[in-house]
Specification:
7-stranded mixed sheet, 2 domains, 8 helices, two-stranded antiparallel ribbon, TIM Barrel, alpha/beta, 13 strands
């Protein structure tokens, strides 16, 4: 079963500064990386608050950088404290990338530095044991939400879009985002208001999904995803709804409320048709999550309360069964179609 973390939210600069000061104790190399990271995150923290619509564009860079920091700290916590490894005179060579708060440097490459053993015995020691491995990492990234996609599509010309895609998704000339957690319908960052892939007038239902369409996404979200995949074909996409269609819920609205259990078969088919529709557009879906923040029922934006027991029952008895039809096969951790394997990813509780 694959896991992933939700988007990191902006941290307080004072907390971030203190956090990176701990890293500085590891030596000059880590200190240089810590300074570069602090400069980058300081700029992005400001950017993320400047415009709700541009939050996820900024967060894309932030998530990758924070992931690198956590990987460094995680290695120290998991492996530090034991016997020191043999001295390394010629370790890996890395190239720091710096963005300054005044924007005089934007993702600017710096001279390379080389990891090696050394430093004081009292310094923080980070031990990397290449012979011991744990959980695999699928990738680092963010979400191309309706708001961020709308801004990119409507406010940037084609050359600016191309430059942005290179900066965000290129593994060589950009930060190499490799994972996108895509909302299935509206989220709390929606320039279009609330929408799902099966909208019907208030008071009506559509259990057979006669009105299902991803036409909203094909206007600008799908074209931008194709641009991103052209830059980095290794990108993995996970689909997750902030809320199912309003008519499936007890509140008859996408904002808060619970799922009506009798519509679980319709919701399962909703996922199937989403995957098929995106594949028809040439965009494979790597994984699915049943519900974003399933214990958060909020009347201010699309959310839904979905207990863990209900989610597991839905996957076992409805979603899994849909993929047992011809051309599909389901297991406890993945769904396989004729176009590849779709992993079932647990929601964050």
């Amino acid at each position: 079963m694959k896991l992933f973390s939700p988007l990191w939210r902006p941290a307080h600069p004072a907390w971030l500064t203190a956090f990176l000061e701990v890293l500085e104790k590891a030596g000059s190399v880590t200190r240089a990386l810590a300074e570069a990271t602090l400069n980058l995150l300081t700029r992005i923290a400001v950017c993320s608050f400047s415009s709700r619509r541009t939050f996820h564009v900024c967060a894309s860079i932030k998530d990758v950088t924070l992931g690198l920091i956590l990987a460094m700290v995680g290695s120290g916590l998991a492996c530090g404290g034991g016997q020191s490894p043999p001295p390394i005179q010629n370790g890996p060579i890395v190239r720091p990338v710096v963005t300054t708060g005044d924007q005089t440097k934007l993702l600017q490459s710096q001279p390379t530095v080389q990891f090696s053993s050394g430093g004081q015995a009292s310094s923080l020691i980070i031990t990397v044991d290449q012979g011991t491995t744990y959980q695999l990492i699928d990738g680092f990234g963010a979400s191309l939400t309706d708001s961020s996609a709308w801004v990119i599509w409507n406010n940037l010309d084609s050359s600016q879009q191309a430059a942005l895609m290179q900066s965000l998704f290129s593994p060589t000339s950009g930060i190499g985002i490799s994972f996108l957690r895509q909302p299935m319908g509206a989220s709390d960052f929606s320039a279009s208001g609330n929408y799902s892939y099966d909208n019907v007038p208030a008071g009506q239902t559509d259990p057979n999904l006669v009105n299902f369409t991803i036409s909203h996404d094909t206007a600008y979200i799908v074209p931008l995803l194709k641009q991103a995949m052209a830059v980095n074909p290794a990108i993995k996409l996970v689909g997750v709804p902030w809320s199912p269609p309003a008519w499936m819920k007890t509140t008859a609205t996408m904002n808060g409320g619970n799922m009506i259990a009798s519509y679980f078969p319709s919701l399962a088919q909703y996922f199937v048709q989403y995957v098929q529709a995106y594949q028809h557009q040439g965009i494979p879906i790597y994984a699915l999550a049943v519900q974003n923040e399933p214990l958060n029922s909020n009347s201010n934006y699309p959310t839904e309360y979905l207990a863990a027991s209900d989610e597991s029952d839905f996957i076992a008895n409805d979603l899994g069964l849909r993929w047992q039809a011809p051309g599909w096969a389901a297991s406890s951790s993945s769904v396989t179609s004729t176009t590849g394997t779709i992993r079932a990813m647990p929601s964050r509780y």
